[in-house]
Specification:
Blueprint (H helix, E strand, L loop, with lengths): L3 E4 L3 H13 L4 E4 L2 H7 L7 E5 L7 H11 L5 E6 L3 H9 L4 E5 L3 H23 L12 H12 L7 E4 L6 H10 L8 E5 L5 H9 L16 H4 L4 E5 L6 H13 L1 E2 L8 E2 L3 E6 L3 H6 L5 H7 L2 E4 L10 H16 L5 E2 L1 H8 L6 H15 L4 E2 L6 H4 L7 H11 L21 H15 L5 H20 L4 H8 L3 H11 L8
Parallel strand pairs: 1-2, 1-3, 3-4, 4-5, 6-11, 6-12, 7-8, 8-11, 13-14
Antiparallel strand pairs: 9-10
């Protein structure tokens, strides 16, 4: 392990920190000014850097800027006097791990340095590990069983049915099955059968001939043809219309299908993997799913555990999603404090991995500091009122209306931690998450939340007087009355 560097022009502070860290068996290296530390970075790097802000010559902020430009993963702790608190906050927002205000308690200083040390060692282990992110993250026993199943199926072309709750990662498993199969060099084609309107789904699956229906101006290859010699993944198979189930059964039975409007049989050499969050056995009993198709699909069943069954994987996933989100937005990745990580690990998160990823996107944009505390999380999580992916979505509503949790006001034109401008950036993230999850009517859903947030906020400012709220919002009295009724908003009263 590399030493901890201490940069301070005050010899007494250097001495106190050196002795305290020596008692913890931690090696140190001290510098009286930032220039010497910057020069030393040409030859070596510390595990953690502790620096004062105000020093003769180059300041601690200049040192921080140099370190972050060259070694972004290196934790830097800034020491500051109370009079320098604004500078410390600026440093904190600029990438400092944390700051110590003088006079500081030496035991708390050592504890903070140890936290930074753990973060640094974790970053080092990530950097020295494989450069390619695993396709599926998980160390829990339940996930190890999934990995073993993928391994056993690696050389097989057998049909697989993946079951599990929404957001648990069924498509990732399907992709892994394809990647490790003999068909890996051939196409992997995915289709969410619940996301395609019923009258278009047949054409999506099997293609159509020119003139087969109004608007069919050219011949179109369907997903079966696109996946030829490869893998076709049909997500949410339980929602497939009953009449199309018959056509799918025929393909699975004899490997032939017809394009819509076609008369020549097409041969399909495709491995079919399906997934559903529904109970197919119950849908068969309810007459909504063909029993013969169910048996065709249920050759090998692979059940994917919910996040509640693999809580020990939550810290790994959180760190991965925070890094991923920060990379997409071009900002430094946030860090979770230990209590925050424990809090998240105890949540049910009914939206599973997808909800956790959306939450990490929210944190990257909205959390005020680099180290995320429990109070920085969406209120629906900390108050225990949220459920499913709606926990993140609902928290977005007040932000879209111009107010972040805690009362801070955001300008639509102001950048948020390097993200796209203000609440617009959050809206883009939320929409991207919903679209990526295959959710339908995204504009209608977000539009309702936007209108609801605006009206609720206006009513709050007018103490429930809806006519006054309508004036402030610039809409008519009849409009706000109708919207209050449609959106189910309580607490409104006539002026």
């Amino acid at each position: 392990m590399k030493p901890i560097w201490i940069v301070d022009d005050d010899e007494s502070i250097r001495w106190v920190l050196e002795k305290a860290l020596a008692r913890e068996n931690l090696a140190t290296k001290s510098f009286a000014n930032a220039r010497d530390a910057i020069a030393a970075l040409e030859l070596d790097t510390p595990q953690v850097l502790v620096s004062d802000i105000r020093m003769p010559g180059a300041s601690g902020l200049e040192l921080l800027q140099t370190v972050k430009s060259r070694f972004p993963g290196l934790p830097v702790i800034i020491i500051t006097a109370f009079s320098d608190l604004d500078s410390a906050v600026a440093a904190f927002q600029g990438g400092a791990f944390e700051y110590l205000a003088k006079p500081f308690d030496i035991d708390k200083a050592v504890e903070l340095i140890r936290r930074a040390l753990e973060e640094s060692l974790r970053e080092t282990s990530v950097e020295s590990g494989p450069s390619e992110t695993p396709e599926i993250l998980g160390q829990a026993p339940a996930m190890q069983e999934v990995f073993r199943a993928i391994g056993r199926l690696s050389q097989s072309n057998v049909t697989v049915l993946i079951t599990g709750e929404s957001g648990s990662g069924k498509e990732l498993v399907a992709r892994a099955l394809h990647k490790h199969s003999p068909r890996a060099a051939q196409p992997f084609i995915a289709l969410n059968t619940a996301a395609i309107p019923k009258d278009l789904l047949e054409s999506e699956l099997f293609g159509h001939e020119r003139g087969a229906f109004t608007g069919a101006q050219t011949t179109r290859r369907g997903r079966f043809e696109q996946a030829e010699n490869g893998t076709l993944f049909l997500d949410e198979i339980g929602d497939m219309p009953f009449d199309l189930q018959t056509r799918l059964l025929r393909v699975l039975s004899d490997g032939h299908f017809y394009r819509v409007g076609g008369h020549q049989p097409m041969k399909a050499n495709v491995r079919v993997i399906t997934a559903t969050h529904q109970n197919l056995e119950q849908r068969v009993r309810d007459g909504l799913f063909r029993e013969d198709l169910y048996h065709r699909l249920n050759v090998i069943r692979l059940r994917l555990p919910s996040l509640r069954e693999r809580r020990e994987d939550i810290p790994i996933l959180v760190r991965h999603f925070l890094v991923q989100s920060a990379r997409q937005l071009g900002v430094e990745a946030k860090r979770m404090s230990e209590p925050t990580m424990q809090f998240l690990s105890g949540l049910d998160l009914p939206g599973n991995v997808r909800q956790l990823e959306n939450l990490c996107n929210w944190i990257t944009v909205m959390a005020p500091g680099q180290t995320v505390e429990i109070k920085d999380l969406p209120l629906e999580l900390t108050q225990g009122q949220g459920d499913g992916a709606a926990a993140v979505t609902a928290e977005a509503a007040p932000v879209l209306a111009g107010h972040a949790p805690g009362g801070q006001v955001f300008d639509a034109a102001a950048p948020v931690n390097g993200a796209p401008p203000g609440w617009i950036g959050l809206l883009e993230l939320q929409a991207a998450g919903m679209l990526g999850a295959g959710q339908q009517e995204v504009m209608a859903v977000l539009g309702r939340q936007f209108e609801s947030a605006l009206i609720k906020t206006a009513l709050k400012h007018t103490h429930g007087r809806k006519n006054d709220a309508a004036v402030r919002l610039g809409i008519g009295r009849n409009t706000i009355t109708r919207k209050i009724s449609e959106l189910g908003i309580d607490g409104a009263k006539d002026d």
